[in-house]
Amino acid sequence: MLVDNNKSIKVGNNTIEYSSTGYHVAYSMYGATDNIPLTPALQPWTRPTLTSADTGSSQTKSKYNVGGDHFAVEMDNAWNDGDRAVYKAFDGIIDLYHPENQTSSNTEDWFACALMGHWNGYHWIKFYNPQPIMITKYRWYYTDVASDYVRIKQCDFQYSDDNINWTTIQHSEFPNADVWTAMNDYIEVDITNSGLHKYYRVYVTEMAGNDFSYSMGVLPCRELSLWGYVQE
Q1: CB-based contacts of 215, cutoff 8 Å, min separation 6
Q2: Residue 221 shares a structural domain with residue 178
Q3: Cα angle for residues 156, 193, 89 (degrees, 5° grid)
Q4: Overall domain count for the chain
Q5: How far apart are CA 61 and CA 227, in angstroms?
Q6: Residues 60 and 160 in one domain
Q7: Under the phi-then-psi rule, with left for phi > 0, alpha for psi from -120 to 50, and beta for the rest, what region is 67?
Q8: What is the CA radius of gyration of the chain?
Q9: Nearest residue to 144 via CA among 105, 177, 113
Q10: What is d(CA 73, CA 49) in angstroms, rounded to the nearest whole number?
């Protein structure tokens, strides 16, 4: 048995080939050829939890860079008013009024959120895992400040294999985004057939909400919960 570049395995005249969607047996027998997918053994993946110590050089990045040896996150920009860093969307704290989300001058849950601002026609939050993962669901929690609420109206869930070219897996629309709802408000999206990839992002293309906050382009993410699998 020979292994070529850790990506294909030759067994006799047949080849087990690897692609981003998994392993495939390419064989030829009696003049016929075929390509049979092999389903890799998968196990549940647990999203890492970040803390304030994981803040990078700016509020838009984590301490570790996307593309390295550690789980890492980014967002397109940050609302620079207090601690609104991207790690807040991955700190595992969903409680709106958890002590870690309070400051001496503010007890509202804006400080529980990663907060994007300066709308340029899009907002995004990206996450990277050094081992390829298959995402099956995400849940985006909002803030609970009724006077300043903003919600996602349309977004795409995308993957990349190089952090440059992005492919949309799931497009989602939320026609009731203009309607205010009470605390513990979130959107939840099931993902099918994402394949195994290292880079993912939620790419927001339309928002709705309070006139002032909407005009400022702010979009809160109290927590981005993720479900998925990795290969054993």
Answers
A1: none
A2: yes
A3: 45
A4: 2
A5: 22
A6: yes
A7: left
A8: 21
A9: 113
A10: 11
Got the DSSP string for 104-119? SS--SGGGGSEEE-S-
What's the number of CA atoms in the CB half-sphere (13 Å) around residue 110?
24
Q: Determine contact, residues 153/196, Cβ cutoff 8 Å.
A: no
Please give the biggest Cα pair distance in the chain. Answer: 77
Q: Domain holding 77: CATH number? A: 2.60.120.260
User: What single-letter amino acid sits at 194?
Assistant: S
pTM of the predicted model as reported, rounded to 2 decimal places: 0.79
- Whether residue 14 contacts residue 27, with contact meaning beta carbons closer than 8 Å, is answered with yes
Q: What is the mean pLDDT of each run of 10 residues along the chain (232 residues)?
A: 40 51 50 55 94 90 96 91 83 72 50 81 96 97 73 96 97 85 78 94 91 79 94 85
Q: Are residues 94 and 166 both part of a single domain?
A: yes
Q: How far apart are CA 230 and CA 43, in angstroms?
A: 6
Q: Is the Cβ–Cβ distance between 25 and 35 less than 8 Å?
A: yes
Same domain, 96 and 146: yes
